[in-house]
Design goal:
With about 200 residues, the chain is mostly beta strands. It folds into two domains: about 1-45, no CATH class; about 65-195, Immunoglobulin-like (Sandwich). It has helices at about 5-20, 25-30, and strands at about 65, 70-75, 75-80, 85-90, 95-110, 115, 120-125, 130, 155, 160-170, 175-185, 190-195. It has a five-stranded mixed beta sheet, with no helix packed on it. Strands 2, 3, 4, 5 and 10 form a five-stranded antiparallel beta sheet that branches. The two termini are about 60 Å apart. Keywords: Signal. It comes from Acidipropionibacterium acidipropionici. This is DUF4352 domain-containing protein.
Length: about 200
């Protein structure tokens, strides 16, 4: 139905309703209201019609899943988790220290720039989708070497080379870590389920 047809139909309905109220002087002095209804018709897109509106979707970060040892190819190189979770507990006499870790490998493509390595790109997820941030493993001798961590050239990976090391988390061994998760700056996520 077109806009003019709807307005005309409302006008007829309003006049009919008012005429059915009777012709008393009280009715003629009653306040009136004008109702305007606007209907906008959308064109149905047809193939090859550039003027029709098209739906847009928001950009949602991609989540890709890999098996332990499988490499995730990114714009700068490859990332992989190469071992399942390993845990270590140390009793230093005054307190218990806990760590769980997985071993990761980062390889920078030969044509890429020298790239800083940061452990904070990595997270460990539990069965409830909680994520843990990395912590130092310096006191845990079984979880060495650590994956390099830094933002300057000293810890940057040269093009065409790889680094391997443990990424650790201050998590008690009673917590079941279910996935290693890599968060890149482009918003994409890469997951490796842990056993």
């Amino acid at each position: 139905m077109h806009k003019s047809t709807i307005i005309a139909a409302l006008a007829v309905a309003t006049v009919s309703a008012l005429s059915g109220c009777g012709a008393t002087s009280a009715a003629s002095s009653a306040p009136t209201a004008t109702v305007t209804v606007t209907v906008t018709e959308m064109a149905t897109p047809t193939e090859g019609d550039d003027s029709a509106e098209t739906a847009t979707t928001s950009s949602v970060p991609a989540v890709q899943t890999f098996k332990i040892g499988e490499k995730a190819k990114t714009s700068i190189g490859t990332f992989a988790v190469i071992s399942n979770v390993k845990s270590q507990t140390i009793d230093d006499g005054s307190s218990m220290l806990y760590a769980q870790a997985f071993k990761a490998q980062i390889c920078i493509d030969a044509g890429a720039e020298k790239t800083p390595v940061r452990q904070d790109m990595w997270r460990a997820a539990d069965k409830d989708s909680g994520e843990y941030e990395p912590s130092t493993l310096s006191v845990f001798d079984e979880l060495q070497p650590e994956l390099p961590d830094g933002y300057d050239d000293a810890d940057a990976i040269a093009p065409g080379t790889c680094v391997t090391g443990w990424v650790g988390f201050d998590v008690k061994p009673t917590v079941k870590l279910t996935a290693a998760v890599l968060h890149l700056t482009d918003g994409n996520q890469y997951r490796w389920p842990l056993a």
